[in-house]
Amino acid sequence: MSSFTEKMTEKEWEAFCEIMLRHHYGQPYFWSVPDEDKGDYGIEFYTAEGTIFQCYYPDLDVDMATYKRKMQNKINEDLKKLKQYEKEIGNMLDGVMIKQWVLLTQKNKSKDLIGYCNRKKKETLAKAIPFIDTSGFNVKIETAESFPSAKLYAQNVYLKTIDIPLAEVSDIDKAAWEGSNSVFFDNVKRKSKAIVAGDSKNFQDRVVTKYIQINKFLDQLKDNHPDLYDQIEDSARAQLESMQDESILEENIDAQFVKRIVSNNKEAFERYAKFFSERNKQSLSFGYLSKWISECYMDFINE
User: Fold this and answer.
1) pLDDT at residue 302 in the model
2) 214-253 burial, b for 16+ CB within 10 Å, e for fewer?
3) I need a labelling partner for 90 at 20 to 30 A (CA). Which of 43, 99, 117, 258 fits?
4) Residue 16 has pLDDT above 80, yes or no
């Protein structure tokens, strides 16, 4: 095990693995499964060639019996979900046949787990799950060492804190945006009045500024760190849907609602926290709120 992967959190390990695997397989052949909307069916990632990945970061300092029990429980519980969510997973895979299920962990400490995986492979095949390729299906434990060049790439990304300067937005910039994005600006004005009691012009101005900044920020992130950009966008799409769902159910859309959404955004992007400076993390949290306010056409219930 590399010393680099020691003392990570579970979320940090998951984010590291995503950068590594996305780089290894390439953007067209790799999918990350968001867990913000009713869970991820026990699947962290899957690939076009038919591999399901589940990340796990166990405590390696426990005694061997405890370690093996926890690893076995993780493998068993997540493999059971393939049958439990058979229909949902099949719809998501859309014809991709699964050739292997991989638990991606920082280290395999026991050869007994290889035998356990073989038993679980046979049990899974016996369940006749339609998206499992019965001709060569495997259950395996892998580590980052299985992807040496992609691991090195992910380490370099992970060790470099990204600090993209936020664009200065002038009154001329805002006026130009409002003139060329009249529909989005109408959304901003209408929703700002519902959120802010009294004069909402300052809030409108803040939203427009953050909207312009987040889009420029994302353009630069895409150019300089395309793999990380793809991950942020995947999480953001799930978070934008969550914001829309919350607003439908919320009885009182006000400043407290906005604060809660910003807090939820920050929590959703926490898995990428070590990649960004503090100001960039804040930009993501409020920036995606501004995108939702601007781009989502639905009205609030209490308008």
Assistant:
1) 46
2) bbbbbeebeeebebbbbbbebbbebbbebbeeebeebeeb
3) 117
4) yes
Q: Which range (209-213, 252-256, 271-275) has the least confidence?
A: 252-256
% of the chain beyond a pLDDT of 70:
90
The token duo for 200 is: 């909402």
Instruction: Check residue 95 and give left, alpha or beta (phi > 0: left; psi -120 to 50: alpha).
Output: left
Helix or strand or coil: residue 31? strand
DSSP code of 140? Answer: E
Can you tell me the distance from the alpha carbon of 160 to that of 80, in angstroms, rounded to the nearest whole number? Answer: 38
What's the one-letter identity of residue 178? E
Per residue in 217-250, pLDDT (tens digit) is 999 888 887 777 887 888 777 777 776 676 665 5
Both tokens of 85, joined, read 């969510």
pLDDT of residue 156: 79
Percent of the chain with pLDDT over 90: 51
Report how far residue 93's alpha carbon sits from residue 40's, in angstroms, rounded to the nearest whole number: 13
Cβ neighbors of 228 (< 8 A, separation 6 or more) are: 19, 157, 162, 221, 272, 275
Q: How far apart are CA 27 and CA 232, in angstroms?
A: 13
- Chain centroid to CA 40: how far? 11
Is a pLDDT exceeding 80 seen at residue 265? no
**Nearest to 143, CA basis, from 76, 255, 226, 53:** 53
d(CA 135, CA 34): 29
Confirm if 75 and 45 have CB atoms less than 8 A apart: no
